[in-house]
Amino acid sequence: MEYCGNRVAVVILNWNGEHFLRDYLPSVVEHTNSEIADVIVADNGSTDGSVELLQRDFPGVEVIEFSENHGFAEGYNRALECISKRYKYSVLLNSDVEVKDDWLTPLWRFMEEHPHAGACQPVIRSLKEPCKFEYAGAAGGFLDRHGYPYCRGRIFDTVEPDEGQYDTPMQVFWASGAALMVVNSVYLECGGLDKEFFAHMEEIDLCWRIRLSGREIWAVPSGHVYHLGGGSLPASNPKKTYLNFRNNLLMLHKNLPDGVRRGLLFRRRLLDTVAWLKFLLTGDGENASAIIKAHNDFRRMRKCYNVHPKQNLLNVDTNILFDYYIRNRKTFSSLKN
């Protein structure tokens, strides 16, 4: 097929998610502007009835079938490699996202008008509590001086109601993988999602690399989507703890220059020891063990990343732990007060 100019591919990665496709794909098909975009499902070797459902009920949706499950990151990498010659942009859209109105056009228009942007996200609201932001990305993400992620609309477990307080477009450090719009050529040039992360923080790592390439990451509040979230692992699951701690360390190791990397990782080990002790003292041995395993695996895996940037993008003053727990700053807008 020939290149489709400035069109968008809305790519939903699916693995045994027949129930998600049945519940949420109809809204994506209905509310995605067909004049600028096509909806594509990349199936990661599902063994349920996903493909049959798509063929029967969604004949207008293109299906890319993989013979096996390549995981979240590599599944998207392969899907975008398949379609990059046909589309200028892609939206990596989680299968548990519901959309309303013309959600995509504001993102597409913004990217067309901002050629230095490499990626952007809409406002992400909670599907369960639509008046609130959703944990995974809210209105755009940042990292503090120690590499802890937080968002406009969400700091740690405090999620704000959306009262229009973040309705201004803003450059951010990272955009959420729940609804991540990318320039396909930039995505591929920067290496796509790191498959070694498996899950969690892989989009932050990608956005960091996109910014290192000289492009911008934006939050575009004129677009909205509604994310179910928590469908894979609940917050208290030790596997999620393991992935979050391991991947955060890997991300810092990969993307920090030599002059600051060792010192920051030393401080993070101290802070992670405090988190480990907290789990231990509250009788949560499984999550305490997950932190130990995360650090052990980080030490093994970091050897695979030998090329580091010269630019330090984490040159920020915000200390989100101090602001949140000591200064009692629970919202993004209160951090500078």
Automatic annotation (TrEMBL):
<keyword id="KW-0328">Glycosyltransferase</keyword>
<comment type="similarity">
    <text>Belongs to the glycosyltransferase 2 family.</text>
</comment>
<keyword id="KW-0808">Transferase</keyword>
<dbReference type="Pfam" id="PF00535">
    <property type="entry name" value="Glycos_transf_2"/>
</dbReference>
<dbReference type="InterPro" id="IPR029044">
    <property type="entry name" value="Nucleotide-diphossugar_trans"/>
</dbReference>
<feature type="domain" description="Glycosyltransferase 2-like">
    <location>
        <begin position="10"/>
        <end position="128"/>
    </location>
</feature>
<protein>
    <submittedName>
        <fullName>Glycosyltransferase family 2 protein</fullName>
    </submittedName>
</protein>
<dbReference type="InterPro" id="IPR001173">
    <property type="entry name" value="Glyco_trans_2-like"/>
</dbReference>
<dbReference type="GO" id="GO:0016757">
    <property type="term" value="F:glycosyltransferase activity"/>
</dbReference>
